[in-house]
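Quick start: load a record and inspect it. Here is DUF1798 family protein:
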Amino acid sequence: MLDIQSFLAKTQELIALTKEAEERYKKGREEGGEHDFFNVVKPSVERCEQAVKSWLRESFSYIKEYRPKYMYEEQLNSVEENLNEIVLQSYFCKIHKKRFKDLAESVLYTLKNIEDDILKGDRA
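Running the structure step on this input writes:
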């Protein structure tokens, strides 16, 4: 059985990680600067990968159990792929601004829909 409170917390954690990455990207584009790969970038990316992997397993269970409208496994897989990419890219700012923004918006759109569905459905 899916623990809705835990799933909601993981969803909110991913929303926070996405927003942190957006801020870091904006700052990096303005200020430039290098990040220590092994002490800063790698641990951050690994933390994100673990968080999103754990969330992804539960998200599949969630959509099977509660069947939220317009929510599909492909979108959930895209969250994993895109979030991992934007967290990594947020340190290097080598990706085009529009592409970064589009990826971040896509991730946030799906995560917010899930968060809203949980809260609206009084499942939390």
